[in-house]
Amino acid sequence: MSTEDSRSPYKMAIKQLEKAAKYLPREREWLNAIEYLKHCQRSLIVSVPIKMDDGTVRVFKGYRVHHCDARGPTKGGVRFSKHVTLEEVKALAFWMTMKTAVVNLPYGGAKGGITVDPKHLSGNEVERLTRRYTYAIINMIGPMVDIPAPDVGTDSNIMAWMFDTYSIGTGITTHGVVTGKPVEIGGSLGREAATGTGLMYVIEALMEKLGINLSNQRIAIQGFGNVGSNCALQLHETHKPKIIAVSDINGGIINENGINIPDLVEHVNRAGTVVGFEGGINCTNEELLTCDCDILIPAAVEKQVTAEIAKEMKASILAEGANGPTTPEADEILKERGITVVPDILGNAGGVTVSYFEWVQGRDAYFWDLERINKELKKVMITAFDEVYKIATGKNVTMRVAAYIVGLKRLVKALMLRGLFP
Ligand code: GLU
């Protein structure tokens, strides 16, 4: 096992923080704030026992971590995956703090999860698991405390059960306790596609700066869940680039002439995987990541672009849809090779941005149309992109370091203004 495989995602996140902190003032107050941000404010581990359909009881492990609430109530998704660990949830919570600061939302960072493969559970079992988990963390969440949302392995149905359980438990119908809800019960139009849409807006802005026509680009996408599939669809509908390779947990498919995305979505809806799609030939995960394309979009999970992959990658742009897909070692190699990285804390911030719109709409009980949602989303993403790009070019640093500089400045300022209790 190489060092980067064995390193916990949280250590990797802190390494990113330390790297960017070198570009910040070295005064005592700044150093104190950076030290503060290296720690999560609170982490809860819960047992989640549920009755399975066959009458047996199984006990799952659940987590909720608040990283930092200096800029507002904490915010972040809930992940259902067999790979969930405390270290992973802490890293994801940290990235939420950074992400909400980069796009300037009045939130802090949090994350939650259950170590479970939801595909092995029935729908009723998933519902019981979700409700029992929500009950177990009920004192840690709330519309002005911490607001969960979907992440890998969770969706709007799960948010509906979380909203319902919290509302029953507190006796108050509380739309603002979770985002990513179905639109029928206080969800926002555009939330489902928001992460993919936001990533497309950032890619568009980058292409404009580089003077490249997005329609001529060949794109490969790792992951065809919420982020990957929506990004592919948005790109297809808006720019018609050649999306030449797509993968999911079961494998990948490749077609040099471009994959027909609407047909692929239909296939995935039927088969549950991209594998077996007739409009392409099978490929491995590694073949996808190193295929001959212009833009690579990792939209799955952490630590996919390793040093080995970074050496072999053909794309000249890596646009991160996933959280933490690139290891620090790979980052160095990509920099040396002149590959532009759109970092996760900027690239995938569209999801939490429309979550914020959902929260605002819920508070006003007044809902916006899709046109307004996407217009406001674009404004947030482009403003953040411009700030990050300006620092990256001005200081000659990567866009990841620049994004950390933008986010850290806001966080350090908030910490200074609030002061340290007592
Ligand atoms: N899970 C998403 C993310 O990683 C969305 C979080 C949210 O909407 O609060 O950004």
CATH topology of one domain: Rossmann fold
* Element order: H for helix, E for strand: HHHEEEHEHEHHEHEEHEHEHEHEHHHH
Q: Look at the structure and name the CATH superfamily of one domain.
A: NAD(P)-binding Rossmann-like Domain
Tell me which CATH architecture of one domain applies here: 3-Layer(aba) Sandwich
Query: Would you count the extended β strands for me?
Result: 12
Tally of contiguous helical segments: 16
Please compute the radius of gyration using only Cα atoms: 20 Å
Strand proportion: 15-25%
Distinct bound molecules: glutamic acid
Q: List low-pLDDT spans.
A: none
| Distance between the amino and carboxyl termini | 45 Å
What is the overall silhouette? globular
Quick one: biggest sheet? Answer: 7 strands, mixed
* CATH class category name of one domain: Alpha Beta
Question: Reading side by side through the largest sheet, how are the strands ordered?
Answer: 9-8-7-6-10-11-12
Mean pLDDT: 96
Look at the helices and sheets and give the structural class.
alpha/beta
Give the helix level as a range of percent.
Answer: 40-55%
How would you portray this structure in words?
The structure is a single chain. The chain is of the alpha/beta class and 422 residues long. Among the domains are: 37-177, Rossmann fold (3-Layer(aba) Sandwich); 194-342, Rossmann fold. The protein contains 16 helices and twelve strands. The chain has helices spanning 3-6, 9-21, 28-37, 86-102, 123-136, 156-170, 194-210, 226-238, 261-271, 285-289, 307-312, 328-336, 344-347, 350-364, 370-395, 399-418; strands at 42-51, 57-68, 74-81, 108-115, 146-150, 218-222, 242-248, 251-254, 281-283, 295-298, 317-319, 340-342. Strands 9-8-7-6-10-11-12 form a seven-stranded mixed sheet, sandwiched between helices. Helix 5 (123-136) crosses helix 6 (156-170) and helix 7 packs across helix 15. The termini are far apart. The mean pLDDT is 96. Bound molecules: glutamic acid (GLU). The site of glutamic acid has 12 residues, from strand 3 and helix 14.
